[in-house]
Amino acid sequence: MNLGMSGKNILITGAGKGMGREMAISAAREGANIAVHFHTSKDKALETVGILRDIGVAVHPFQADISQIDEIQRMKNEIHAQLGHIDYIVNNAGWAQMKSFFQYEPDEWRKEIDICFYGVLNIIHTFMPDMIKNQAGKFINIIGDSARTGDRKLIMSAAARNGTVSFLKSLAREVGESNIQCNTVSLGMVDQGGLGEDLIHKIRKQYPLKRLGNPEDVTGMVLFLLSEQADWITGQVFSVNGGHSMIG
Ligand SMILES: NC(=O)c1ccc[n+]([C@@H]2O[C@H](COP(=O)([O-])OP(=O)(O)OC[C@H]3O[C@@H](n4cnc5c(N)ncnc54)[C@H](OP(=O)(O)O)[C@@H]3O)[C@@H](O)[C@H]2O)c1
């Protein structure tokens, strides 16, 4: 199937490592040029850039804290100079603390909201006006299913990301006339190493498909939403989660 992504410039946040890197690799294999965003993982981001260069697409690393709009604006200028106009964005960056609400001091909850909620607004406010001018664009936001089901130990990131779901649905209504699609991919637990066997065994019992996800389980959905096959899909939330939650 031709996904129609060849030659598109795609910004993927948090692409130095983890799932962001896998998304970048799979989009590059479809011929897309990649802006590899990182925050602190410079060495990893340079590794990702090396892998993508070997695939043969245009690629550059870009650093920014997505919670700071001035850093996003600086990054946009750098991307324009190095790669040109960004066609599509996957916001995969995120940050969460695992504790219950009453374990937080008030000054500890701001960071999750700044990254997981305001980060999305900062990126869209900076990059989407050009997509509107271009009358084409796609924005995909990666969240966890905790944002839809609630999770007492992920209460703050879940709340911030639930806000982005509502924000993107409203935005999708506004920018649809400019041929821009805004969708959310909501994940169950993805094993990227580092979880002990005992813990994995305990968690996977809760999954109807009896295993945790792996990055390849996620990249298929992201690629599909970036492709021209998804040009008539907007304002939606797709769970990729081994059946862990089934939200109608
Ligand atoms: N793994 C799972 O089971 C799971 C489940 C549900 C949802 N998710 C979500 O899926 C996404 C990818 O997951 P992952 O496990 O691959 O995560 P990860 O390795 O922790 O990656 C998150 C990325 O976010 C970036 N980031 C953090 N704070 C930032 C900031 N202030 N500004 C810019 N970037 C920032 C980090 O960049 P640097 O490394 O460069 O600092 C990091 O690469 C995340 O949004 C995560 O919350 C993951």
From TrEMBL:
Q: Which family does it belong to?
A: Belongs to the short-chain dehydrogenases/reductases (SDR) family.
User: Which named protein is this?
Assistant: NAD(P)-dependent dehydrogenase (Short-subunit alcohol dehydrogenase family)
Specify the signal sequence span: none
**Superkingdom, taxonomy of origin:** Bacteria
Note the InterPro entries from the entry: NAD(P)-bd_dom_sf, SDR, SDR_fam
Cited SUPFAM superfamilies: NAD(P)-binding Rossmann-fold domains (SSF51735)
Task: Quote the Pfam families the UniProt record gives.
Answer: adh_short_C2
